[in-house]
Design a protein that fits this description.
Layout (H helix, E strand, L loop, with lengths): L3 E2 L15 H4 L2 H7 L3 H9 L8 E6 L5 H18 L5 E7 L5 H10 L11 E7 L12 E7 L10 E3 L10 H25 E13 L11 H14 L5 H6 L9 H5 L10 E9 L4 H9 L2 H13 L3 H6 L7 H21 L9 E9 L1
Parallel strand pairs: 2-3, 2-5, 3-4, 5-7
Antiparallel strand pairs: 1-6, 7-9, 8-9
Helix pairs in contact: 3-4, 7-13, 10-11, 11-13
Amino acid sequence: MASTLGVTPEPRPAPMQGTGFYNRHATIQANGGAFGLPMIAQAFADMKLGNLPLTIADFGCSQGRNSMAPMRSVIREIRSRIGPEVPISIVHTDQPENEFSSLFTFLRDSEESYLRSDALVFASAVGRSFYEQIFPPSSITLGWSSFAVHWMSGSPVSSAGHVWTRLAPPEVRRRFAERSAADWRLFLSHRARELQPGGNLVVVQPCLEEGRPTVFPTLMPWIQAGLETMGNNGTLRVRELARMTILQYERHPSEVRAPFDGGEFMGLRIKEDSINCPPDPFWDEYLADRDREALADRYVHFFRAPFQPSLLAALDDDRDADFRGTFVSRLEAGLRQRIISEPLRLLTPMAVHAMLLGKS
């Protein structure tokens, strides 16, 4: 599929798979986010907690489940330092289309909810992109963001030529790299304004080991092949296929650190950062049970939860529910059959980058 360069910011990232599906199938994201948990204690170790009530911001909450452990850690650290009587405001943010109903239902009903153990913790949410300023200046005590900032604010091209930005043609890939760098600096700039002096920000994001082209060298070409088959047989229209790019960009650690090459960036400084390469849990389970169908289920669910909505969003508005269901079924059936026929590790080592930033 040929690429066409353009300046339109559309399409934009789609929200995660709805009806709580992302909550149930975000194991990879939860495991990665755990690398940032020790930084929460580090963040509070030398922080003055004088401005009350304390406001904690969760940037890119999705449906909420993966925010519970970090927010419980935050509450625990605060209580250990200033006692049980201080009110804590936790504000979850995501784009307006996010399924906030799953977040609030989880907060109300789940045993994992941080609200169950502390009556002076108050939860709320804001539907706004974190590529904008969300909070008043100097109002945030601590910010947390996990597996969110690799999603881009929009597309720098009208057609990328591939479903995965890191596998697009070289010139298109360069445009995505530039947009990703600008997005990262924009995210940091807004957080720098929102944090109180002495406040901290923990950001965890999936990255690439230096020199690797992508974390998905097999999975995403398989998806691209499936989409092109549907384009060739007339299932997908040319313009729909052209729009089908998942707006994530996998940064190398050097790209994450780039804004801080000169020291501070907008008053933010790196206090700690680490890189970890967690194993692929789905492949490890397969090596233990050799169940090809179970492996296919795990990988298909992993793909569906964060990525499939972007493909559905690329369909024309006149595509009805029956067509959309058929499209999803065909794409997933093709992926499932390939995995069963040729079991492969589809998630190569992911360099999870955790970073603790402090505001002067």
